[in-house]
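Checklist before submission:
- one chain only
- standard amino acids only
- sequence pasted in full

Submission:
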Amino acid sequence: MRALTFRPLPGITIAVAIMLALLVGLGVWQLERLQWKLGLIAQVHRAMAAAPISFDDALRLGVAAEYRRVRLNGRYDNAKEAYVYDIGPQGVPVFHVVVPFTLDDGRVVLVDRGIVPRDMRNPALRPAGIDNREAMFTGVWRTAQAPGFFTGKPDPVHRIWFSRDIAGIAGAEGVTLAAPVLIEADATPNPGGWPRGGQTRVEFRNEHLQYAITWFLMAAALLGVYVAFHISRGRLGFGAR
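Returned file contents:
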């Protein structure tokens, strides 16, 4: 009668056991990250779908106000437009028009009114969209975006920026903000069609499942090599009892 025999090499077995534990642990961690990311995405979509809140309510929520819609009343200071470079929906370079907005009580926030083509950055080319009268609008509450290592250097003279550097934009325009946030205007059309609002992006990189599968496959491959090695050395196989 033939029976399976296995005579593991102690040193290799211990090393492989440690590596297997590490690889499987990384796979499990990525699955946990996947659940966290799915929860975060669901939370953002709930926030975007919720009824608009007031500016003061958003302030009270703090970081939980991210992606919440807020309703503001006040006036734009269109003479202080700033422009944040971006790639538009069709892959075409555009500028986000960022404008100080003075609330009815005198506090000031920055508002991203939407995008304009590069050749329409000059406000004189879109006079219908320039209005300093009392306005009410709904926008999405967003926090500051720190410039990255590869972010282009801003050009304050021409009011051109390459990230949502809220503090930098406000400082260049001599504006004291009520909160370090940027309110992204909704898709309600502006007179003349520009700027075009509704540009809030809800994008989260979510590759945790692929990463988990990769770690588990590596663990399986390591186990396969371990088994094949012992078979080749005659230390794993079927022999007579």
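Reviewer check: The mean pLDDT is 89.
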